[in-house]
Structures are given as structure tokens and as C-alpha cells.
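can u pls check wat happens w/ adenosine-5'-triphosphate
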Amino acid sequence: MTRIIAFVQRKGGCGKTTTCLNLAGAMAELGRKVLLLDLDPQCSLSASVLDVRPGEHLLSAALINGTSLADLVRPSGLANINVIPADPDLARIELNMGLMPGRERLLRDRLRAERALLDGYDYVLLDAPPLLGFLTTNCLTAAHSCILPLNPQDRSSRDALSETIASVRHVAEESNYNLRIDGILLGQVKLRTSLGNAACAYMRRTWGSLVFEPVIPDSIAVQEALNNRQPVTLYNKRSTPAAAYRALCQAVISQERNAAETGSADVAS
Ligand SMILES: Nc1ncnc2c1ncn2[C@@H]1O[C@H](COP(=O)(O)OP(=O)(O)OP(=O)(O)O)[C@@H](O)[C@H]1O
Ligand SMILES: [Mg+2]
């Protein structure tokens, strides 16, 4: 079965897009087929792997007019990873869709209508924008689970988390009863500093087992890989962050097995 995972956090710059790309890299390394779907009008995920030039087929049109998503798929240049790029018009629909009935289900309905597309992938990773609006709600409504990346050293990032979790719970109550939180991912962590250690310890005390065990270090290798349009798992295979993303990938896979065995929905209560 294809797993759909949304990367969500109200705070900007906290690692949603970077996690999406690098987790895809770790999944692809294991031979899993991954579709990256960029729902952020900033187009950062698309730009991280493609030289994006919006053509006539646009994701915003697929959501609004129901045109085919399959026509939008582009090779990423990376083995086992394809991309549906975002387009700047998504910003317009974020603003204008407020009153449309059923607006939160547009992405889910499109994906459900395109079983043949989904059947070609083990994972669809949805990169959400940094606000809890129409596009993020669509991601959460379409997803089986979500990953909430944040920089634990950054207070505003920590403060945004409660709001983000409240949104996840709201969607789980209203329209996606089986939505799970896979975990809160601590990223850009300054390892072996008292600030980094204290911030991670605080997050584990506060959020317990909801925090993923692997943490992603703050690392130049991650940025170099981004600059070269590659996941760090490929660009610098033996680096510490590459190992961390592989550990994250294993954690996601084992959660998936547990959820399949128990059939449980686990949105933090
Ligand atoms: N582990 C890391 N080590 C070093 N730099 C990182 C790491 N993770 C992310 N960054 C840097 O932080 C920047 C912001 O990350 P990213 O774009 O993934 O955040 P985002 O949550 O997607 O932001 P937005 O909400 O604006 O879409 C990246 O451009 C990258 O340079
Ligand atoms: Mg982003």
C-alpha cells in the first residue's frame, strides 16, 4: 500500500522541505519508490531537485479543476524519486479557497481518483507551507500520517508546535480519523553543545515518545547537499546527517509496521 506522509509545521525554516528530500533519499536507497509532492507556493522542494519552470500543467489547476496529477509528474534526476512540482499560483488559491465547501478534501479526492498513479509508489511525501491554512489542511486530510520537524533550540519553533498539533488533531477529528503523528523530528541540532542538549532534553520531557529517537544534526553537509540538488544520503553517504536520516527512515518504517499490526490511529491526546 502507498503511504502518504505530510511534513507540517507552522514555523518557517524549521526543516520541512529538507526532511522531505533527505527522507526520500534514505527511502530511495532502500529501493522504495517515492513521489515528492510540493504543496508550498515557495516551490522550495521542487527547486531542491528540479530546475522548475512552471508549464501549462499546474498543481493548482489539478486541485481546482480536477485535471490529472499524473500529467504533472517529473523525474527528479535521482533514482526512485519523482516530483510533482509546486507552482506560485498555489499562493492565490491559499487565499481564495477559504469559503469553498469541501475545500480541505481537494488533494485527497485527486489522489483517490488516481489510484494508478499512487500504485507506482511506496511513499508520497507532501511538503506543506509554513502556515496552517488551506494547503496544510489539504496535506493533513490526504495523509496517513505526518512528521512535524522543528529546530528545538529555536523558541518560536517550539512555540509553534502546540498550534501545529492542535491543527493535526482538528483534521483528525473532522475529516481524517486515522491520521497519525509519526513523530516530532528534532533537526538542525547543535550536537555536543549545552544549548543543543538542553533543548533536546526539554522536548523529550515535554512530548515524550512523540519525539523521534534519531535527531538531525546542524550540518554543513546538509546544506552542501541541498546546494547540489541531492539528498545528503547520496551527496555525502558517510556523513553523520546521512546516518541520521537513515535512522529516521527506519523509525518511520517500523512505525508503519506497528500501525499496520495494531490498526491504531495515534494522534497525540
Ligand atoms: N540539518 C540541517 N543542517 C544545516 N542546515 C539545515 C538543516 N536542516 C535545514 N537546514 C537549513 O535550513 C533552511 C530551512 O530549512 P527548510 O527549507 O527545510 O525549512 P522549511 O520548514 O521547509 O521552511 P519553509 O517553512 O519556509 O518552507 C534550509 O535552507 C537549510 O539551509
Ligand atoms: Mg519548506
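DSSP finds twelve helices and seven strands in the chain.
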